[in-house]
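Incident log, support desk, overnight shift.

02:14 A customer reports that sequence design results differ from what the structure should imply. Their input is reproduced verbatim below. On-call engineer (initials T.W.) acknowledged and began investigating.
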């Protein structure tokens, strides 16, 4: 699974703005973390080593208080920006998804599971919230904060900095291995949810027929079976989530412990001073925390990313009729337009054509009824006139105030 789908960047300007704001927040928050570490170590040294009074510690206390307040405000601002960006992206994706679904037309919809599409437009799009509100902020913070911490620790103590630098690479390695399995499990979970939603909607829509033939009770067991499949898929994903989080937590804890033991031994031998040792000890967990947070939030965001992939699969599918062009003609007055069908033929993927209509002329104000047995092409004729289906051969002419126009040259939205 990709960290950031490039299609989101191309389609949603809100994502680009949000990435800039989140990067600034991450850098500023990282600087405040470093300032807090130096302020805390200064307070500890003044209080326990120098036996300083409250007056001498006032400056460090003020700096620490401002740093804590700044981090709280930045966290609040980051959440506000995340939810606003998520709302904008969801709104844009929903509009594009629904408009393109309409553009694809009833012939495409007839081959789809309506329940799957409804799940995508509602629950699937809402799942993107976790991606923006939790995963992306953690990912951006993990990009900046560990590097800033390593640079500062190396400037204070080279050995501790090298230990942190060496052990940090283990977390992304294990995270990438775990992420592959998580992405597959989440996609399976999403597919079972879509199937469950689609089947339930089909049952509700066909309930009168099922009751008429006495088959309603049989569907209860089928829905129960599909719900149980979704439950098992969800539990497999959660089990993988807990196991992977525990593994990454173990690696991070051991790494911090190695740094702490190194600092402790050198403090006992007097090869490092207390102020430097405290700064390193306070900053060491901060180097691992963002990566652990990314691993934890990856699972929360996986459902949203899987839903976004399904949405893009629909949005990027080609419509049976080309969309509006900048030079397409608009019919301004259909009440004075004569409709002429000449040698129209529509052929789907089967032997016999779905529609064969040699000639038909409908004059303005004229009422025409189209009758025939099921499958003779009545619906296909209407789909051609509404530009939901492109004719295989023949053409439809609009003869009106704008002149004699071929339907393929007319804006479909008209």
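02:41 Re-run completed on a clean worker. Output:
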């Amino acid at each position: 699974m990709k960290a950031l789908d490039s299609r989101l960047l191309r389609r949603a300007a809100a994502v680009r703005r949000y990435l800039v704001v989140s990067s600034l927040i991450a850098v500023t928050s990282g600087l405040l973390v470093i300032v807090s570490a130096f302020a805390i170590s200064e307070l500890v040294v003044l209080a326990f080593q120098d036996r300083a009074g409250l007056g001498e510690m006032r400056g460090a206390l003020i700096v620490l208080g401002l740093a804590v307040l700044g981090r709280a405000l930045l966290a609040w601002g980051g959440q506000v920006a995340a939810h606003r960006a998520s709302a904008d992206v969801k709104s844009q994706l929903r509009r594009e998804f629904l408009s393109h679904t309409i553009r694809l037309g009833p012939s495409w919809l007839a081959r789809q599971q309506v329940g799957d599409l409804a799940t995508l437009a509602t629950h699937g799009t809402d799942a993107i919230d976790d991606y923006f509100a939790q995963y992306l902020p953690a990912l951006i913070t993990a990009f900046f904060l560990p590097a800033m911490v390593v640079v500062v620790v190396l400037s204070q103590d080279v050995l501790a900095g090298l230990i942190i630098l060496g052990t940090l690479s283990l977390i992304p390695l294990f995270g990438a291995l775990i992420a592959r399995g998580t992405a597959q499990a989440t996609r399976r979970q999403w597919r079972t949810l879509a199937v469950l939603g689609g089947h339930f909607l089909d049952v509700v829509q066909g309930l009168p027929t099922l009751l008429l033939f006495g088959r309603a009770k049989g569907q209860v067991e089928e829905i129960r079976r599909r719900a149980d499949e979704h439950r098992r898929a969800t539990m497999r994903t959660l089990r993988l989530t807990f196991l992977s989080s525990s593994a990454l937590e173990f690696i991070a804890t051991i790494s911090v412990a190695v740094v702490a033991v190194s600092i402790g031994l050198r403090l006992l031998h007097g090869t490092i001073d207390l102020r430097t040792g405290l700064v390193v000890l306070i900053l060491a967990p901060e180097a691992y925390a963002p990566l652990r947070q990314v691993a934890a939030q990856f699972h929360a965001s996986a459902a949203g990313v899987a839903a976004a992939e399904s949405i893009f699969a629909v949005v990027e599918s080609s419509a049976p009729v080309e969309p509006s062009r900048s030079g397409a003609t608009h019919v301004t007055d259909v009440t004075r337009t004569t409709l002429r069908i000449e040698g129209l033929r529509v052929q789907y993927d089967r032997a016999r054509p779905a529609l064969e209509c040699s000639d038909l002329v409908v004059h303005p104000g004229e009422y025409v009824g189209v009758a025939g047995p099921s499958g003779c092409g009545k619906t296909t004729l209407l789909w051609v006139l509404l530009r939901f289906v492109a004719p295989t051969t023949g053409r439809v002419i609009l003869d009106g105030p704008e002149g004699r126009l071929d339907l393929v040259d007319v804006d479909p939205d008209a």
